[in-house]
Amino acid sequence: MNSKKQRAVAWWLLAGVIMIIIQTLLGGVTRLTGSGLSITKWNPLFGILPPLNARQWNDAFEGYKQIGQYKFMNSAYTLSDFKSIFFWEWLHREWARSLFVVFVIGFIYFLVKKYFDRKMIRPFIILFLLGGLQGLIGWVMVASGLNDEHLYVDHIKLSIHFISAMILACYTLWFALQLLIPDEQRVTDKKLHADTLALIILLFIQLTYGSFMAGLKAAMSAPSWPKINDDWIPKSMLTDSYISNVLNVQFIHRGIAYLLLVFLVWWFVKTIRTAKEQHSSLLLKTSMWPMILVALQVALGIFTVLTANTIQPGKFGTFEILAELHQMVAMILLMALMVNLYVVKSEKQAALKG
Asked: Half-sphere exposure (CA, 13 Å, Cβ side) for 147?
């Protein structure tokens, strides 16, 4: 395929990655503003427009009044209050629709212009299947809170929704990198490739616990650092669940963060050495970003926890801004590591190319 055509497709895919990250951040705003359950119906085709008249707004509000979040938390809400939370959930879903449109229109355009080759057929099928699955998981997550038993969505389903979005972003990025980075610019190092993959797996575990933190609103349980309230290790670590107890979840989330920081410093030193040995200017550049990002991420995590006691329901303040930045940097860190995983080939990948 013509390299110019490859680059055009690659930049389109990278635009999709950016849109997925923005979509995830909008999901974070939706959660932080308590807006996620405001739209109680899943209407992917005809839900493009928000309510346009008083009757439609009243119907939407009546739907919200039937669930536990309204009955037991927000029963004082007026229609004006409801409109403010409805906006964020509507925007979140609208961005998802625009993401779908960008992919479909781009796909049709490049197909008609013959920018694709046969090797792209399977990746595109997988890409569209992952996108459809992500939308379905999102609705299953929302549906978990549309009852009288729960005031919020299930935190495990929330984490599945977030992790599936990150898998979609990683896959799209990998597809783009295959078109954007010439194979001769990559280096071969089986051990470093395995270490980078292990680091990504550890980060995915950390992201899962970050989702648990968000879904359980666990930051408020211990707005302190370096201790968890007055303890270095919560007493509940010996007696309670590691995925639903708020103190345990926060302790594990912090612990993995420290482990990631240490692992990444070691990985960085090793990667710089490999880049110099193999005279790879590309690897020298790509290895810098994870180190910068993880330091920023740890700092943001600490300040986010320390400001958890400033949370005021219905207001978007310091904690919420820091929480969004914390989530954003985590996603960019994952993308940066994926780039390094692509740049450093395993011996098996090199043999397949050969």
From this structure: 10
188 and 333 in one domain? yes
CB 47 within 8 A of CB 93: yes
Q: Under a CB-based contact definition with an 8 Å cutoff, are residues 135 and 94 in contact?
A: no
Beta strands in the chain (DSSP E): 187-188, 344-345
Residue with tokens 């049709």: 108
193-247 confidence digits (pLDDT tens): 999 999 999 999 999 999 999 999 999 999 999 999 999 999 999 999 999 999 9
- Domain-terminating residue out of 156, 180, 204: 180
Regarding whether 190 and 174 lie in a shared domain, the answer is no
Q: Residues 332, 218: one domain? A: yes
Q: Buried b / exposed e across 171-204, counting CB within 10 Å, b at 16+? A: bbbbbbbbbbbeeeebbbbeebbebbeebbebbe
CA-based nearest residue to 98, from 159, 41, 26:
26
pTM greater than 0.85: yes
Q: In total, how many domains does the chain have?
A: 2
pLDDT, residue 335, reads: 98
Count CA atoms within 13 Å of residue 119 on its CB side.
Answer: 5
Q: Which residues contact 130 (CB under 8 A, 6 or more apart)?
A: 164, 167, 168, 171
Any idea what DSSP says for residue 188?
Answer: E
Distance from chain centroid for Cα 256: 17
Radius of gyration (C-alpha) of the chain in whole angstroms: 22
Distance separating alpha carbons of residues 74 and 84, to the nearest angstrom = 13
What size, in residues, is the chain?
354
Q: How many other CB atoms sit within 10 Å of the CB of residue 72?
A: 10
